[in-house]
Amino acid sequence: xxxxxxxxxxxxxIGGGAIGLTVAWRAAERGLRTILLEHGGxxxxxxxxxxxxxxxxxxxxxxxxxxxxxxxxxxxxxPAFAAELGDVGYxxxxxxxxxxxxxxxxxxxxxIALRRRFGLSVERLRASEAxxxxxxxxxxxxxxLDVADDHAVDPRRLCRALVAAIRGAGGDxxxxxxxxxxxxxxxxxxxxxLADGAVLAAGDVVIAAGAWAGELAGVGEPVxxxxxxxxxxxxxxxAGPGLLRxxxxxxxxxxxxxGDGRYVIGATSEERGFDRTVTAGAMFELLRxxxxxxxxxxxxxxxxxxxxxxxxxxxxxxxxxxxxVPGLHWAVGHRRGGILLAPVTAQLVVDGLTGDPPxxxxxxxxxxxxxx
Amino acid sequence: xxxxxxxxxxxxxxLILGSGGFDNHELLAAAxxxxxxxxxxxxxxxxxxxxxxxxxxxxxxxxxxxxxxxxTAGCFTARDAVTTAHLARExxxxxxIKLEVIGDDRTLLPDAVELVAAAEELVDEGFTVxxxxxxxxxxxxxxxxxxxxxxxxxxxxxxxxxxxxNPYNLSIIIERARVPVVLDAGVGTASDAALALExxxxxxxxxxxxxRAHDPVAMARAVRLGIEAGRLARGAGRIPRRRYAEASTSxxxxxxxxVPAAAE
Lengths: 372, 264
What we know:
The structure holds two protein chains of two kinds.
Chain A: E1 11-14, H1 18-29, E2 34-37, H2 46-49, E3 53-54, H3 65-85, E4 95-99, H4 102-117, E5 123-126, H5 127-133, E6 143-147, E7 151-152, H6 155-168, E8 172-174, E9 179-185, E10 188-194, E11 199-201, E12 204-207, E13 226-236, E14 247-250, E15 253-257, E16 262-266, H7 280-293, E17 301-312, E18 319-322, E19 328-332, H8 338-353, H9 365-371
Parallel strand pairs in A: 1-2, 1-12, 2-8, 4-14, 12-19
Antiparallel strand pairs in A: 3-7, 4-6, 5-6, 9-10, 10-11, 13-16, 13-17, 14-15, 15-16, 18-19
Helix pairs in contact in A: 1-6, 1-8, 3-8
Chain B: E1 4-6, E2 9-11, E3 15-18, H1 25-35, E4 39-43, H2 57-63, E5 67-71, H3 78-92, E6 96-99, H4 112-124, E7 128-133, H5 137-145, E8 152-153, H6 167-176, E9 182-183, H7 190-199, E10 203-206, H8 208-211, H9 216-236
Parallel strand pairs in B: 3-4, 3-10, 4-5, 6-7, 7-8, 9-10
Antiparallel strand pairs in B: 1-2
Helix pairs in contact in B: 1-2, 1-9, 3-4, 5-6, 7-9
């Protein structure tokens, strides 16, 4: 690791979403000369669409205990992380998982049992108690689960704050700079080649380009990534804030209150390549579910209907840490959890950059082994 | 197990997998292997580009050597289903189509009228049509009459996991059908699959029970073994049900072990 006043940066981070920005910030803070390259505008890709749920407990899945642990670690880092950055719209709002009928209640009971088996702190609520806590919920409620520790943040404000933080720590953020591939010489990363042909040298390169990372050349054994499309609505309540305090979730659908009268309703999960069109059917289904759950939704004003592309790996786990080429690091594949996992991911990547690489289930090398 | 023959084609596996509910590609691949499935059905609407189905799930199935059976899930009219079948034929180079025409999106029950219309048209065009149908023996008969290569009645609604709610109707379908009968929906766990084969179904299609289990790979194996057990039991000839006990060993001729030893 070359440090000091040379013109060659220590680290180039490819990708200016929440993950890349956080990595760049933490690297710059550690005294590494850091440049972040973003092909569009920072925070303009998947982070632009993300709802910003910090919900490891609500999202816990049987068989993905390692991801749950990573998520819990990151969630516990979030309050201090948010405080360092200033106002990023972090709200300790809590989350309610709800069921409308007997079928959904049976499914929710199974989810409750799973969370208790994992030793997670959750509170089973009868419908009347859930509605006392969230009076905006429809009377046709059957059962709810209060997850007090699952919160939310505004990813757009987060990304803006991160850019300021990187620059404040002496790092460089370059937008509109597309990277064609990674430069490798004598089996070691030496920098990146830009789309315009220019070469930027660097000691280490971190790939944080999300679903687009698969298009980079020269990365050795690449992490297999595919986009998982999510259509998502942004709305506001003309009557102002207050209809909902907590995040409300029902199966894969959710309503996230920003605390200021703005809301996010999401999201579909579709395997449609890099398609980012928005469809009538998705909008209908999202609004149907949300308004059945929270009748007041009908009065909200629709501000945006967009589609983002979550970066998915074959095993649904992120790939974090050194890759197969020395000097190359990955921070990709966070799927629905990129905002939640940004603090812990940056920690692990910077550990790797400073000579203490993480090992274990999230290593990007697991795919090279699988292919061998 | 003896092979299953659909439209002249021999299949070793009597378990057809459904890809619905799998969002984890590694789990899907592992479940395919453990299920020893030869065929996995994929909704054409789930593909990135139906005309160029490479990428995502189709590649995963290719890699584990499982053949894709395209289906028309999400179609609500015969016209939609026929169009989707055409796309599938072009994309996969197969005439096989699992025909689904759904009546409403709360129950996901088949629309009988549209289903028969679509089946007739597709059979005329040379498709091998495998229709998802209700457990109505008359409708099953109509589908067979228009030339479907199998009938695929539901045990209970898609994803409900309620098993076979009307085994009497299903047994009538099985008795009368001259094409294979594949139980297409409602399997919740391995015993449901075993019961279907015991009843006389030729095969089982299973998606949610496996993909939404806490451990899909273990459930894939369990359902495969359930099918094997059910098929064996069907052939083995079960005993009749009766109301009173019947000792498995006859009382007659038993040694009188409690007789005290002869007095000295």
